[in-house]
Amino acid sequence: MISAFEAVPAGRPDAILIALAPVFGSFTSCAAWRIPRGLNWVSDRSRCETCSVALAIRDLVPIVSFIVLRGRCRHCGERITPAWTIVELACLGVAIGAVALLPGHRSWAAAALGWLLVFLAALAWTKRAASTPTSTAG
Asked: Which is it for the CA torsion 109, 115, 95, 55, positive or negative?
């Protein structure tokens, strides 16, 4: 039986891993923000923390949307915390590091472990922010 990785041409698994890293970082940010607050982290739409408008797909492109929107909500113009983009960049860095140190299929396992650490760090940060009454994290 052929595995999914064997069906991908040589060199492509690394490129796919790096391309998907910011997407995983975006999901990591979402889950880390919502879990401590008891919010649905799987199916709820992402919203601006200030104006509560549901974000469109174009507003959710990891890293790129933050740069294009200059760190502000498209609807109300309020500042978006750079913390989520930092998590996306951290996941990208983990993937690049995994590919550099373990090229090939092993890089996926290394990246998954690194992403777990990024998630746990983001979760710890958001739990602390959620318990702070004057917090503006989000």
From this structure: positive
Q: How far is CA 13 from the centre of its chain?
A: 19
Does residue 4 register a pLDDT over 60?
no
What does the alpha-carbon distance between residue 73 and residue 79 come to, in Å, rounded to a whole number?
6
pTM of the model: 0.79
- How many CB atoms neighbour CB 31 within 10 A? 16
Long-range contacts of 94-103 (CB under 8 A, 24+ apart): 94/21, 94/118, 95/17, 95/18, 95/20, 95/21, 96/18, 96/21, 98/17, 99/14, 99/17, 99/18, 103/14
